[in-house]
Design a protein that fits this description.
- The protein has helices spanning about 15-20, 20-25, 40-50, 65-80, 95-105, 125-135, 150-165, 180-185, 205-215, 235-245, 265-275, 290-300; strands at about 30, 35-40, 55, 65, 85, 95, 110-115, 120, 140, 145-150, 165-170, 175, 195, 205, 225, 230, 250, 260, 280, 285-290.
- Strand 15 and strand 16 form a beta hairpin.
- The protein is elongated and about 80 Å long.
- It is built from 12 helices and 20 strands.
- The chain has a domain at about 140-215: Classic Zinc Finger (Double Stranded RNA Binding Domain, 2-Layer Sandwich), CATH 3.30.160.
- It is α+β, with helices and mostly antiparallel strands and about 300 residues long.
- The strands form 10 sheets. Strands 1-2 form a two-stranded antiparallel ribbon.
- This is Protein hunchback.
- Pfam families: zf-C2H2.
Length: about 300
Amino acid sequence: YKCDMCEYVAVTQDKIKIHKRTHSGEKPFKCAICGLSLKHIHSLRAHMDTHTITYTCNECEFTTGNNKEFKIHMIKHTGGEIHECTHENCEYVSSSLINLKGHLNTHGKKSYKCCLCDFTSKMYGVFIKHLQAHSEKSHDCGLCNYSSTSPRVLFIHLRAHAMGTLIKCDLCEYSATHSGKIKVHMRSHSDERPFVCEVCGMSFKQPVSLKTHREKHIVDRPYRCNICDQREITSENLIKHMQSHLEEKPFKCDLCSYSAVQSKLLKRHRKSHTGEDRKMCALCGHVSSSPAALKLHMRTHTGEKP
């Protein structure tokens, strides 16, 4: 499915519908508590946490249900400067001016642009997933070992199965929908190499092998990485290169130096600041920092020895 307003593509119609909100500015998900409207349901869920979670300071007895207030409080403990985002309805705050400048970019120009189409995203993870959508996926036949990168071609193959019109190779189990493919396949059983490189004279059995070989002679690399400026010969090579950036850790904690590859790992880490992972003793109300610490505390009631 393709967006009719840009070059964005997706595997489902629902994803196209969600994507079009970037063009319309529609914000259908509204918070029932404060009235804030958001484009995506996952954004609303994250926002609702600010109304339900109690943030507890590890250094003193301060508690609050407001994430921004808690961040400001923790920055005061470290003696750092407080830098707040000035955009409406944005609660971002950081002790780092550099982090704030990076955050402000998310309100303006989108930072990641696909060099294969016009798709842009301010979220690195979404950008990487979009690049993967450009790569060809293999579709396998459930009746034989045939596979194709095209769903349409696979459908033709399956139809030939149903009609009994598949042509089989006399030397192996390979089968095809027409004689031309059988002729090409037969080269794998012979020494015939009709595809010759005009630069160095090397010959190949298949045109795809010659195409891959020719890349070694190409000096121009038109596909450029928007993150590190590395250039590649083909879009497939660029996508493989982009995977190396997944080893980076773009999701940074505003309260300490922790960073993570995925946002969910950062969210889990933040619980160490909010006190969500603490455990309370049902007998006396004592709060432990972890399940293991709670188990040790319970021995003071039971008399159990380690």
